[in-house]
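Researcher: I'd like a candidate sequence for this fold, 336 residues long. If you have to choose between options at a position, lean toward the conservative one.
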């Protein structure tokens, strides 16, 4: 049975302030710890009207103090925006706040548009090419292991030191991240929800086939992140899924809007003759009662061959979202 994890993106919701979305992420982390999830990740996006989680390293600091057992981390830190040394320092501080519970998920994508990428880093065009070297340096500083001989910054140490170190993950939605993760011998997670599964099985296979064992991870550790929504009944799940369907339709046209109430979205779909879209998008995401969703998760994990499934869920009603994670946890026999 795969381990279960959570990805939250702090989405903008119609009728609520952006600040409440950040607080909702903290509340969801506490809830998911209580019902037994293995880890809880938060994402990094910039200049995005719908996804307002821009600084996972800050949010994780608050989360470290509000949880006790669940692993917490980034999915991910978009490394081309930053100095690897500074990221190492930030996550060593986080590990001091929550020893042995911090994950450092890394991505190469900008998490933004091109203009925003330049606003974040003046060398936005050049930095992605340095990504493998930056990952190498970051792993060395995080784990207090030597940098290559002759490295200009070989004498530097990332503080604070401690008895534990963050666990570095490679994240991606293509084969590139799979290759980098395999080369460095670190866990890898594929963003299945981002590509509707396209390229996922191939990336996981590439990762496993090319894996070079490391001291911390002698065997590959592979995961997927999927979009899922469970409710007491299939009918109820489909009602709340209407908000996601309308969002996706507008996103495909380049419109990024706050998440609408389920009833409003469903009425719009009906008025515009778009109810068939629910069935279309449902083929790509996991929606239904808890047993249906759990069965889909188990089947996908077995078919692709992964150790862990992370779940991302968007709803307008926070109680519905909390209940979805709770129902899935119960189907997998998780305990708080």
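Model: Candidate sequence:
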């Amino acid at each position: 049975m795969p381990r279960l994890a959570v990805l939250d993106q702090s989405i903008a919701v119609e009728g609520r302030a952006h600040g409440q979305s950040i607080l909702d992420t903290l509340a969801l982390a506490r809830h998911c710890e209580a019902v037994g999830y293995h880890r809880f990740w938060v994402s990094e996006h910039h200049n995005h009207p719908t996804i307002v989680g821009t600084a996972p390293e800050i949010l994780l600091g608050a989360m470290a103090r509000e949880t006790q057992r669940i692993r917490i981390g980034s999915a991910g830190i978009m490394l081309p925006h930053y100095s690897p040394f500074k990221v190492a320092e930030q996550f060593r501080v986080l590990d001091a706040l929550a020893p042995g519970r911090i994950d450092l998920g890394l991505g190469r994508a900008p998490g933004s548009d091109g203009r925003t990428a330049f606003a974040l880093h003046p060398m936005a065009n050049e930095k992605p090419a340095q990504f493998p070297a930056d990952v190498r340096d970051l792993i060395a500083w995080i784990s207090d292991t030597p940098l290559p001989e002759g490295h200009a910054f070989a004498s530097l140490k990332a503080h604070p030191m401690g008895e534990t170190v963050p666990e570095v993950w490679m994240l991606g939605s293509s084969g590139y991240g799979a290759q980098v993760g395999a080369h460095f011998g670190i866990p890898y997670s594929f963003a299945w929800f981002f590509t509707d599964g396209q390229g996922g099985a191939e990336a996981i296979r590439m990762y496993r086939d090319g894996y070079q064992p490391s001291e911390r991870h002698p065997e590959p550790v592979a995961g997927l992140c999927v979009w899922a929504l469970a409710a007491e009944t299939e009918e109820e799940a489909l009602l709340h899924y209407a908000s996601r369907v309308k969002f996706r339709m507008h996103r495909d046209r380049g419109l990024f809007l706050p998440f609408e109430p389920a009833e409003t979205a469903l009425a719009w779909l009906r008025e515009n003759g778009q109810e068939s879209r629910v069935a279309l998008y449902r083929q790509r995401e996991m929606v239904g009662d808890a047993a249906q969703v759990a069965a889909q998760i188990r089947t996908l994990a077995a078919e692709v061959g992964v150790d862990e499934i992370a779940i991302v869920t968007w709803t307008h009603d926070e109680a519905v979202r909390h209940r979805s994670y709770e129902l899935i946890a119960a189907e997998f026999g998780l305990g708080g």
